[in-house]
Every structure is written in C-alpha cells, then in structure tokens.
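Title: Comparing notes on inverse folding

I've been comparing how different people in this forum approach sequence design from structure. To keep things fair, I'm posting one structure and asking everyone to reply with a full sequence. Here's the target:
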C-alpha cells in the first residue's frame, strides 16, 4: 500500500483538482499554495475529494478587500473579515499554507486602526467597522507565530507591535471602568457569543453603537469578562516577546500581563466550581458554563495541573462539553442548553471557531493524546461534509448553519495535518504524525492509509501512513521509519529530534533512521529525545493519559 499511496500523492495536480478558477486573484493564491508543496492523498477517494473541495471553497474566502491584496474572509453569510476569528486564529492556520494572505489580513487591521487606538472589529467591502471590540484569540500570538514561521520580517513585526500597543492602551482606557484591571464586556457581540444564555438580557451592541459606551440603565452591565481578560493577558505575554525581538524591554509587558492574570482569578474564577464566569456590576457571577473555559485555556492561563483538572471536570466530561462531536458551546447539563445548529447560535451547538482554537490549549500542556479524542469524531464528520458550515450538531455531526465558512474549511486542513500530515511549527520544528482517521461512525472506514507532502526551504518532505508504519521521505529518499501511533519531531532540515506517543496504548516497534535502529516502547504523551545522533532518552516524567469522564 505504501508505494501505491506515494504514487497517488505524487500524481496529484492540485490545479486539476480545483478546476476552473472564479476570479483573477485565485491564480496567484493557488500558486502560493503550490509553493508550500502541500498535497494530500488517501486510500479513500471520498476523504480526498472532501479535502480538495475544502481547498476550492477556501479560494472563495480569499478576496481583495480595502485594496488590491486579497485577504481572508469569514465566508458563508459573513461577507468580510472579523478580528475575533478571521483576523487571528483563522489567519494563524492559513499562515502555514498561504502566508501572504495571512500577512495582508493582519496588516489591514493595523492600517484601519482609529486614531484613538481602537482596531476595527471587522473589515468589509464597505469599509471598517468599530461598533464593538469582539476579541477572542490574541492577535499578538497569531502575529508572532506568523513571524516565526515565515521569514521573520521585522518591518511587519514592528508595524503590528505599534498597532497592538495602541490598542492595549485603548482597552485599558475604555474597558476598565470598574477599576478591576480586567476587560469589560458591554454587549453580547463583544465576545461573539451570539444567542448565548451568558448574555441573556444584555444588548447585542454597545450603548449607542459606540464601543466606548456601556448602557447606563442596565441592571447588570458591564461584565468583567474572563475571555476578554485572558485575551489581554496572553496578548501582553506575546507583546513582551515581540518587544524583545525588536530590542526593547519586555518587562513592562510582563508586569501588565501579571496584572491581567491576577484580575482574571480575583474577579472571574469561582473556586468551588473551578470555572471562569463573568462578574456583573452587582459583583454576582453569571453562572453559565460556556466555552469561555476553553477560550481562557487557549490563552495559556494556568499550568498543566490546572489544565488537567479542567479536562477531567469539564472539557472531557460527557455531561459538560464532551459531546459525541465536541465541544458544545455551553455545558450540556445546563437547562438552557440548546443543541440545534440550524442558526447562528452559541447556546449549545459545536462551533468550528471553538474547534480551531482548541488545539493550542491541549498542545501547550503536552496533552497530545487527549486532543485526538476530538480529532477522530471530527474527521468522521468531515468525511461526509459538502457545505462546510459554521457549526455541527453535537449529537449527529450533521452540518448546520451557513456554508463555505472559512473556520470549518481551515479546521479540516488543520486537523488532517495534525493527525496524518507534516506540520511546520514556530519553534523551527516539523511534526510528522503517524495516525489515521478512525471508523467511529457506523464502522465506516475513512482511510486505511494516507500520504502528505510539504516543501520546506526547497526540500520536499513526504509522509506515508499505513496501519502498521509511517515512512518519511526527503527529496524522494526514505530517511525515517516509525510505528503507527507516534509523532516524529524534526528540525526544518528533517533531522530527527524526538518521538511522541500519540495514542493511549504503548506503541512498540522499531525506529529506523540514518542507518540506526532502535526498539522502542512509547507511552501516550511520552516524549523520547534523540541525543548525539544515536541515543534515545526519555525526556520527562510520565504524564499519563487522561480518559473521558461522565
């Protein structure tokens, strides 16, 4: 099967799979995709077909806006680019495939920054809009990762740093009216949580549609919001790194970050529930357990023990957020939970914006195996996709509201690369992951084998996965073989650095690399480092694997 998959991969002509291009900008964008060398083949023509349909629809979401350069659009009914998603986490994923579009997307938010420091919450053909703030993924993290992955352009980094510095000042000036040093929500749309019970009896937009104003007659506003506060905490952590990269002191940013973190725990964290809630103007917690928890954790709040507790109590709990197709947007045991995904709702369904934000939270703490619990059912859902909707039914995995939605499209591209592909990392690493989609739905086989390619610094890498083994090729020559169930970590030249256990079972077998062979037994989440080119040494204490709870 290995040779058949490799031959199939090498025979793919992406232009032929995409078909006729729809607009002038599609040609250069597709050419840049081809420069990345990314191609995907599978034993299943159905899965492979869905992959290239996703790429075709991705081109529909890349549109010149506010100038000649194309930027990423949200897609579906959302005709424009939103800072909470398209301008941050979506562009962060796209940066591995079409980096020029990601960079143009980031820069346009800086270009349209208001004189007082407020960035637009969205950009459309009719221009920028400043009505609300709508923040979730920290922009500074996305910018930093793009910078690290794509040539370290300091002119770009300086431009974005200056803009983000001014925006930080704006938030402190206008969204800290209660003096908590947290960040306040004035309306539902500030966090993009449309129809969530978290914001019942709260207006959708700020007072007078001015992001600086809160309704003075509201009995409960403003909220000290945990996700907004965590955003600014993480933003400041990365602004410290960026400052030092630009030869400035990062210490003032670290001090501000610590201030944000202290506020988050002092005002928004409930010790009894071990959960983050909004604090209303009456100092009452808004006790709706929503995907705010996942948002906060994706902002790198808390150590591994804290994250592990959140996994057991909430994220991997089938009574809370771990539905058949996770993650629900509010806890399933909340009487206000509404699973219907046929409209734009954060009151229950599993939203793709949650699903593309989730991996960072897991991987930041080395919980690689636990993340696969999410990847497997979602791959089964992707296998039958036709529209790429905004949300899924948490019960059936059926597609919900809207179509050609870029977070859903990028989620598929990202999950395939994390599960069975070659993934470049900001730490100058490559991840070669030896897993296959699993038949979780009605025993329907998704793929018995996959093949994936990428070009890094002019070198073509290929990875072929079967049920037994994974094989890495460097410019057509086999360089590494390892058993199914592991991830090989290399530098950008393909030099082996370590191996990670990616499944709950202990993976046993032979590693073959540059004339050396080792018999290994690697537990889930365990990491083994290659030292001096010939010795494999366990990296750290056994983390174990966390199972779902009920």
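Reply #1:
Here's my take.
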């Amino acid at each position: 099967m290995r040779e058949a998959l490799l031959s199939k991969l090498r025979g793919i002509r992406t232009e032929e799979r995409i078909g006729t291009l729809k607009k002038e900008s599609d040609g250069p964008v597709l050419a840049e995709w081809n420069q990345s060398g990314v191609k995907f083949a599978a034993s299943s023509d159905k899965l492979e077909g869905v992959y290239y349909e996703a790429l075709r629809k991705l081109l529909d979401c890349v549109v010149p806006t506010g100038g000649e350069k194309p930027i990423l659009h949200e897609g579906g009914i959302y005709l424009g680019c939103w800072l909470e998603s398209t301008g941050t986490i979506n562009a962060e994923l796209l940066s591995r495939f079409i980096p020029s579009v990601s960079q143009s997307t980031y820069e346009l938010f800086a270009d349209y920054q208001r004189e007082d420091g407020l960035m637009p919450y969205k950009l459309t053909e009719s221009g920028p809009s400043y009505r609300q703030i709508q923040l979730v993924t920290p922009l500074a993290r996305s910018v930093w990762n793009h910078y690290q992955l794509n040539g370290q352009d300091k002119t770009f980094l300086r431009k974005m740093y200056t803009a983000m510095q001014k925006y930080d000042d704006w938030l402190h000036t206008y969204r800290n009216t209660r003096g908590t040093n947290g960040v306040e929500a004035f309306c539902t749309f500030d966090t993009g949580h449309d129809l969530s019970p978290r914001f019942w009896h709260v207006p959708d937009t700020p007072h007078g549609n001015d992001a600086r104003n809160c309704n003075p007659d509201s009995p409960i506003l403003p909220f000290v919001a945990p996700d907004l506060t965590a955003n600014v905490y993480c933003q400041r952590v990365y602004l410290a790194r960026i400052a030092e990269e630009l030869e400035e002191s990062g210490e003032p940013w670290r001090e501000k970050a610590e201030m944000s973190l202290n506020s988050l725990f002092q005002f928004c964290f409930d010790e009894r529930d071990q959960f983050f809630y909004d604090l209303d103007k009456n100092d009452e917690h808004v006790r709706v357990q929503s995907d705010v928890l996942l948002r906060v954790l994706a902002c790198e709040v808390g150590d591994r023990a804290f994250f592990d507790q959140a996994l057991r109590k909430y994220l991997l709990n089938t009574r809370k957020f771990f539905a058949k197709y996770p993650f629900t947007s509010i806890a399933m045991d909340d009487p206000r939970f509404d699973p219907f995904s046929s409209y734009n709702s954060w009151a229950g369904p599993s939203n793709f914006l949650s699903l593309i934000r989730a991996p960072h939270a897991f991987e930041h703490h080395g919980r690689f195996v636990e993340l696969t619990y999410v990847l497997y059912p979602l791959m089964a859902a992707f296998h039958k996709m036709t529209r790429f909707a905004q949300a899924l039914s948490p019960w059936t995995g059926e597609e919900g509201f809207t179509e050609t939605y870029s977070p859903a499209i990028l989620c598929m591209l990202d999950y395939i690369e994390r599960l069975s592909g070659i993934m470049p990392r900001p730490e100058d690493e490559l991840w070669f992951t030896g897993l296959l989609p699993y038949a979780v739905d009605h025993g329907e086989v998704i793929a018995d084998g996959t093949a994936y390619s990428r070009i890094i610094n002019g070198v073509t890498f290929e990875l072929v996965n079967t049920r037994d083994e994974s094989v890495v090729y460097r410019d057509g020559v086999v360089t590494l073989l390892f058993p199914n169930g592991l991830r090989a970590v290399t530098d950008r030249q393909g030099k082996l650095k370590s191996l990670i256990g990616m499944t709950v079972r202990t993976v046993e077998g032979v590693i073959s690399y540059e004339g050396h062979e080792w018999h290994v037994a690697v537990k889930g989440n365990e990491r083994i480092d290659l030292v001096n080119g010939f010795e494999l040494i366990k990296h750290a204490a056994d983390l174990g694997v966390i199972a779902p709870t009920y």
